[in-house]
Structure prediction request, 400 residues.
Amino acid sequence: MDYQALAKKYDTPLYVYDFDQIAQNYNAIKSAFKARKSLIAYAVKANSNLSVLRLLANLGAGADCVSIGEVKRALLAGIPNYKIIFSGVGKRDDEIEEAIQKDILFLNIESEAESERIEEIAAKLGKRARISVRVNPDIDPKTHPYISTGLSANKFGVDIDTAKRIYLRAKNSPHLEPVGIHFHIGSQLTDLEPIKEASAKVAELAKALQKIDIDIKFFDVGGGLGIRYKDEETIEPYDYAQAILSTLSGTDMTIVCEPGRFIVGNAGVFLTRVLYEKRNKDKRFIIVDGAMNDLLRPSLYNAYHEIEIAGKSGDESKADVVGPVCESGDFFAKERLLPPTEPGDIVVVKSAGAYGFVMSSNYNTRPRPAEVAVERGEDRLIRERESFEYIIEKEVRFLV
Ligand SMILES: *Cc1c(COP(=O)(O)O)cnc(C)c1O
Prediction:
C-alpha cells in the first residue's frame, strides 16, 4: 500500500483500513467453526465505522454491541436484528427497552439485578426478552490486567451458582426466555489453555441446564483472540475453534463468537507526519502531528505498535515518537530504533485497526482523524476529518 500517496491525498493524521484483510480475517474465523452452526458476531466496539460494519454485514456477520448506539450502528449498516447481541455490565433502562423493541437475538445479562430489571421492562412492554447469562468462569487469561475479564476479581459476569439462579428464575418467568450462555475471559488472548478451561466449565453448566429443560441454543464464547503486535505467539483460528468444539460433544448448540481485534486489528494503520526532530541531551524525539487523542493504546496500556518511516531505512538510532499533546503520556513509541527523519516524512503506526479511532477524542481541541478504506486496490474516504466548527457545535450556541 502506498502510504505516502494516501497521506498526500487525505492528509494526516489518518486511519487506513485494508478491507480485503478484514474480509480475510472474518472468513478465517467463520471457516474455523465450519463443523457447526455458528454466528460470528463482530465486536463493534473494536472499530465501529459504518463502512466496516457494512463490509462485515455483507459477509454475513452479526454484531456484539455494548451500547444501544452500537446496536443502532449495526442495524444502520445492514446487520439484521436477529444477528445482534447486546452485552455489557451496565445497561440503562432505555437501552434495554429499545433492544427488546428491536427484537435482537439476545441480551447478555451480567448480574441478578440486571436480570430483574430486564424482566420488569419486558413485562411493561408485554414481551418476552431473549437472554443469555455471562458466566465468569474465574480463570486467569494471562493477558494485560486492564483487558482481563474472566476472574472473579473483575466486574464482569456472574459466578456459576448465581448464573443457575438467574436461569431458574428466567425459566419460570413469562417475560424472560433463556436462550444462550456466555463467557468472555479477556482480550488479546495468546494462550489456548485458559480458553479451553473456561469453555469446558461453561459447557458443563450448559449441559446441566439442558437437563432441567432450559433450552440453551447459543454457546457464546466471547471474543478475545489475540493478534501479533510485535512477536507474540498467537493462536490459530483452527486451534481456537477445535479447543472450544472439543468441550461441546454431545450438544448441538450454535456457536456464537465475538471477535473484535482479530478481525480489524492488523487490517489498519495509523499515518502521521513528522513535524520535526528534537534532541534533549542524548535523547532523540520524533515529533509527529498525531497524538494520544487519535490513538490512545500506547498511553493507556503501554501497548506496542510496530513503527515504520515510509520510504526510509538504515542508520537507525533510538528515538521516542511523540505527539503534540500536553501530557508526558503522549507517545507512540519509546526507545525505538528508527532511521533519521525529515519534516513531512510519513510515520506508519501498524496494527491500529482495533481500539484505535474508536477511542479517539477531541482532547486539546484536536479534530478526530479521517478514515479511509482500501478495497481491491481502490481507496475511498469512510469518515471525514472533523473540523473545528464540528468540535464546538454543541457548545457555541450557549455562549452568552
Ligand atoms: C471487548 C469484547 C469483545 C471483543 O474483544 P476482542 O479482544 O476485541 O476480540 C467480545 N465480547 C465482549 C463481551 C467484549 O466485551
Residues 3-14+266-386 form a domain with the Lyase, Ornithine Decarboxylase; Chain A, domain 1 fold (CATH 2.40.37.10). The chain has a mean pLDDT of 95.
